[in-house]
Amino acid sequence: PRAPAGVGAVPEPCPQASLAVLSKVELRVSCKHLLDRDTLNKSDPCVLLLMQSQGQWMEVDRSEIIKSNLNPVFAKIFTVDYYFEEVQKLRFEVYDSHGHAGVGTHDDDFLGGMECTVGQIVAQKRVTKPLFLKYGKFAGKSTITIISEEISGNNGYVELAFRAKKLDDKDLFSKSDPFLEIYRIDDDRSEQLVYRTEVVKNNLSPVWEPFKVSLNSLCSCEEKRKLRGVVWDYDSRGKHDFIGEFFTTFEEMQKAMGENKVGHKDSLGSTLRLWGCVLMAPSLWKIHRVYSFLDYIMGGCQIHFTVAIDFTASNGDPRNSCSLHYINPYQPNEYLKALVAVGEICQDYDSDKKFSALGFGARIPPKYEVSHDFAINFNPDNDECEGIQGVVESYQSCLPKIQLYGPTNVAPIISKVARVAADEERTKEASQYFILLILTDGVVTDMADTREAIVRASYLPMSIIIVGVGNADFTDMQILDGDDGVLRSPKGEPVLRDIVQFVPFREFKNVSGAA
């Protein structure tokens, strides 16, 4: 196991930007109603963060140990890399620790665990789930809460150091053992623990160690955001005595930097003093904020996922094992593999987990006329299915009822999704983004209409993924991708932005799930 990082520590800012486009996410952890495993005192909880890699759970990091506390708020901030295109599985395990070296071993008492994905956490921003013991048994009423924040690449770091003078003495036979907690007050008036200092033993005028914290963690990069500082007298049984509190802002800290001090009277008349404040990104406040993908997702934007499936005759008779639509009882066909691979990513960002599923290029009941945008659940009023499994079931039940036909026209479905996206765009709320997954076995027949539809859709909150299934020649499909040049409509109008990604499935069907 890795040695624990310093409580509330942040990495040194990298002098050179990484070439890879990568987001980092901070995770804060708290628990409530943990099981009490100790006889004389309460449990001493510690959280281990594990990430699944190639089917194995690997420890990434661990929190500090909080003594004698069944409702801990951990100061440790877990930092994970975020990749939208991967299902990143996390596991949080809580232990009653008997010493940091042995956390997670048989010497500790397991208080419960919880599994989720990074995508679920960033999509909901705050996730609260019950803790489970082995064999799926509830750990009493225990819950764990994970709060996520993106680390912006340009938000800077600040180094702070605090000291206090003439603190109130809470101990009878010795002086107080003070420590300081800094909280950020969010817009909903909830408080997020930013940093917890070390305990300075037997001292009424403590000088705490300097620490670095990202400006995103400290004040959400808003210099006027209110901060709350609380000083406690440490108690080994977890019953810390309140000494006092103060309120400030990062703006106040900046103004005081020239004087090298900012003093606050706490609620008991003592003086707390910020005696050092070093801004690591002095030009920060002149930087224009560029909103990232995660800013939208964590701001509540939902991804609406639609899948469109090619039911043209070139796929082959579904009853024949050579058909691309053949339902093999032992393994999914390429259509299902591609659907699940993309759908499992998108479902974390859709709160109702309902997905539109359409088909094209088939004769459908009752009149068996060719349709290029029919609901595969045959409900024209509601084409949504319950989760990815609902789409799979609708696909399998649909096949015996239709006649594969043609041609391969995809412009109608692109236009259909674009109309819904246009209605959303007019609201100006950025509350939904639309992803259309088109699964097809050949080059589209209506190429001119498709190019026109894509150019129109490029002005909308919408993206298109086209997956080529089977062994056909997909050379002409690369035109739609736009990687080799700007896609234009038949009249020469260019796309506003590149919204199409074409992927030949045969290049990926035998690689690992992560790829």
Name the descriptors.
cytoplasm, 4-stranded antiparallel β-sheet, Rossmann fold, Immunoglobulin-like, 7-stranded mixed β-sheet, alpha+beta, disordered N terminus
CATH top level of the largest domain is Alpha Beta
Proportion of β residues? 35-45%
Number of domains: 3
What can be said about the biggest beta sheet?
A: 7 strands, mixed
Average predicted confidence as pLDDT: 84
CATH architecture assignment name of the largest domain: 3-Layer(aba) Sandwich
CATH superfamily of the largest domain: von Willebrand factor, type A domain
- End-to-end CA span: 27 Å
Q: How many helices?
A: 9
Specify the structural class: alpha+beta
Shape: elongated
Kindly state the percentage of residues in helix: 10-25%
What layout of secondary structure does this protein have?
Elements: E1 23-32, E2 45-53, E3 56-62, E4 73-82, E5 89-96, E6 109-117, H1 118-124, E7 126-132, E8 138-151, E9 157-165, E10 178-185, E11 191-196, E12 211-214, H2 215-219, E13 226-233, E14 241-249, H3 250-257, E15 262-265, E16 271-279, H4 293-298, E17 302-310, H5 334-346, E18 354-360, E19 362-364, E20 369-371, E21 374-375, E22 384-386, H6 387-398, E23 403-404, H7 411-427, E24 432-440, H8 447-457, E25 462-468, H9 478-481, E26 500-504
Parallel strand pairs: 17-18, 17-24, 24-25, 25-26
Antiparallel strand pairs: 1-4, 1-8, 2-3, 2-5, 5-6, 7-8, 9-12, 9-16, 10-11, 10-13, 13-14, 15-16, 18-21, 18-22, 19-20, 19-23
Helix pairs in contact: 7-8
